[in-house]
Amino acid sequence: MEAIVLCAGYATRLYPLTKNKPKPLLKIGGIPIIGHIIKKIESIDGISGINVVTNDRFYKQFSEWKNECRINKPLTILNDGTTSNENKLGAVGDINFAISQKNIKGDVIIIAGDNLFDFGLQDAVDSFKKNNSNIIVLHDVKDKNLARNYGVVDVDESSIVKKFEEKPKNPQSTLVSTGIYIFSKKTLNLIKEYASQINNTDKIGTFLEWLHKREIVYSHVSREAWFDIGSHDQIKKAEEHYKKSNSR
Q1: Of all residues in the chain, what percent are helix, strand and coil, respectively (each to 5)?
Q2: Up-side HSE of residue 203: CA atoms within 13 Å toward CB?
Q3: Which residues contact 217 (CB under 8 A, 6 or more apart)?
Q4: How far is 92 from 208, CA to CA, in rounded Å?
Q5: What beta strand segments (E) does the chain contain?
Q6: Phi and psi for 78 in degrees, rounded to 5?
Q7: What whole-number distance in Å separates Cα of residue 106 and Cα of residue 43?
Q8: 3-state SS, residue 47
Q9: Helix and strand tally (H, E) in the chain?
Q10: Which parts of the sequence belong to the Nucleotidyl transferase domain (predicted)?
């Protein structure tokens, strides 16, 4: 299994913090966000490589970060060639780009590069292997008003995805996507098909809504802390959380 970490966004909502620095390299608890993510990936059994997809504007910064840190798995920094929010490939476009550039043929775990989470990833991988099917990792925010800010997922009694909606006005559940997905090797061709035929490669959620009507997608619900670093408020909450964790 290979990992793909999506770090090619421009995070305009966090300006001026991210005007000259990519969001995944912002430090939380003294460590870049991507550093926290890499530690989680390295603990997964059977990970053969980690691929970080960034853009042309921030490629040099990610390359410098790679040279400065100690990573126990083969790591590649991929430049998708984009330069602004206007010409970005989008999340699905970058997944397809990474799969093509690295000629990935096996299973993949995809993680959004602005994610912070306390839970490990091995349980989700074990669930993926048990069900022999795609997995989306969810978190219960327990508040439908809060759920409106995320990709909301409705699942059946077997934990199979029935519906996925990006930022719905009337959420059907409080289970939201954490930006962590595991796709089987047989799904790679569908990613390629979607990227080439559908004129909307920005949101993975839109792809998931398309995918679950063609293939079974299981859910795995996390029980520990999760932060989507999309606002200054979330940065503050994450920083407070990691300070408390480090002081224990």
Answers
A1: 35, 25, 40
A2: 14
A3: 133, 134, 135, 136, 160, 161, 208, 211
A4: 10
A5: 2-6, 27-28, 31-32, 49-54, 75-79, 108-112, 115-117, 134-140, 151-155, 161-166, 175-183, 217-222, 226-228
A6: -110, 130
A7: 19
A8: coil
A9: 8, 13
A10: 3-244
- Listed in sequence order, the residues at least 6 apart from 173 whose beta carbon sits closer than 8 Å to its beta carbon are 147, 152, 153, 154, 155
How far is the C-alpha of 215 from the C-alpha of 36, rounded, in Å? 31
Instruction: For the chain, list the domains and their CATH numbers.
Output: 2-136+179-200+225-247 (3.90.550.10)
Pairing of strands 226-228, 115-117: antiparallel
Cα(210)–Cα(152) distance, integer angstroms: 14
pLDDT in tens, the chain (248 residues): 999 999 999 988 888 888 899 999 999 999 999 999 999 999 999 999 999 999 999 999 999 999 988 888 999 999 999 998 888 999 999 999 999 999 999 999 999 999 999 999 999 999 999 998 999 999 999 999 999 988 999 999 999 999 898 888 999 899 999 999 999 999 999 999 998 887 677 788 889 989 999 999 999 999 899 998 988 888 999 999 988 776 55
Q: Is 56 exposed, middle or buried (0-12, 13-18, 19+ CB in 10 A)?
A: middle
**CA geometry: angle 102, 49, 98, nearest 5 deg:** 30
Please report, as a single letter, which amino acid is at residue 216. Answer: I
pTM of the model: 0.94
Helices 204-211 + 90-102 axis angle, to 10: 80
Q: Which residue, 90, 110, 115, 86, is CA-closest to 99?
A: 110
Structure tokens belonging to residue 161: 């995805």
